[in-house]
Amino acid sequence: MKIKQLDVAVIGGGTAGLAAYRAAKEATDSVAIIEGGPFGTTCARVGCMPSKLLIAAAENAHQYDKSAAFGVHLGKPEINGKEVMKRVRDERDRFVGFVLESVDGIPESDKIQGYAKFIDSNTLQVGDDLQIQAKRIVIATGSRPSWPAPWNDLGDRLVVNDDVFNWDDLPESVAVFGPGVIGLELGQALHRLGVKVLMFGVGGQVGPLTDPDVMAYAYKTFADEFYLDADAKVSTVRREGDKVYIQYTDKQGVEQEALVDYLVAATGRRPNVDKIGLDQLDIQLDEKGVPLADKYTMQTSIANIFIAGDSSNQIPLLHEAADQGKIAGHNAGVFPDIRAGLRRTPIAAVFSDPQIAMIGESYREIEKRLGSCGCFTTGEVSFENQGRSRVMLINKGLLKVYGENGTGRFLGAEMTGPNAEHLAHLLAWAHQSKMTVAQMLDMPFYHPVIEEGVRTALRDLNSKLHLGPEMTQMCMECGPGC
């Protein structure tokens, strides 16, 4: 048995693991990164980048649908599924190549190939012939898709987002289970590329939204475009030849049957912590078996063990994984002299059309924290009559903003609407700067821009906080007198 001694061992070579390795390396040269599969990130391989490539193709195909309203008649596009998927794969591989170039810059002596399991809080077993004794350990093992076990009987007719981007051609039909972030993005994109899409959910949830008004608006908008039942009653799912047979009760209460080429499981992801030997440790876990960690230090209940990225019990997004990895790696490197790291304002986006975004505290979090005392209020704007949005015929959406009574502090926002990814950044910067709603209204707004919709919502909120003038009714942000 070969034994390797280290100051810091990082388990996982994705976004969080690479960030942790680099941060720890600044404090000590005795660092190694352990990876059982390919080095690289979920985002580049099967996540945010290939999905955006598919969405970009779908948006391009969708232009003809609304062009006639401008008096521009483009005609229905001819969609070549093989060419669409070839570009998705080629560009995906290019993005992965950039990540691998950075991995190539890591000394070979610092890269260990194999799956690691804890023997104790300072010892890892990698494969059959290597034992690593590390003073500090960072868990950055990522996550994987999850789905109900009976679906395994579907064989290759069951696909997850990891599989979709390896298709050589577009199928004729799919059933998407899970109208969350991944399901909405993939389902709508496939629909706009000519694939027949049925989308099923549970409990009425749409995307990551928690504000009931915004969620209801999003549900109606997507359901008007393709079949979406966010609280579906599906009685049968089974394989029939090269198809998937589905029996369900539709939204009118009528029994329906469908045969589709694939079932796309977008039913969530689970942290990869169930096979790393946590049972050998006296470590505090949450109800899902994930190690609990301090969000500012990423330290677990075992002082020398840190956790970061999708394997943690925190927000599973790339920028969050990078921040968590940096904090965990730095603290593992300088241990025991650990420090609280910078945690940024939460920001999330769904690249659907209209887009979805959430900033700061969610409606559910604020309601739980302040609802009983009536200590917050909301402002809103519909984008249906917002000037620039209507000019561009992208006038679908609802923005809700939340403020604290008494202080006037901006607490957060949820929205579906045009350019939500960009509006979300403005709101996130304001939230991280701890601005009040009045201070946000003092910022410049050009005319005519979609951002004026943000100002309308903030004005509505400010008036309800009793910290500003009453709203001008029916204001479409169409002139300086509004």
UniProtKB/TrEMBL annotation:
Belongs to the class-I pyridine nucleotide-disulfide oxidoreductase family. Keywords: FAD, Flavoprotein, Oxidoreductase. The keyword Repeat does not apply. It holds the Pfam family Pyr_redox_2. Residues 7-325 form the FAD/NAD(P)-binding domain. NCBIfam families: PRK06292.1-1. One of its GO terms (molecular function) is dihydrolipoyl dehydrogenase (NADH) activity. This is Dihydrolipoyl dehydrogenase. Its EC number is 1.8.1.4. The lineage of its organism: Bacteria, Pseudomonadati, Pseudomonadota, Gammaproteobacteria, Alteromonadales. Residues 349-457 form the Pyridine nucleotide-disulphide oxidoreductase dimerisation domain. Coiled coil: none annotated. It comes from Motilimonas cestriensis. It is an enzyme of class 1 (oxidoreductase). Its cofactor is FAD.
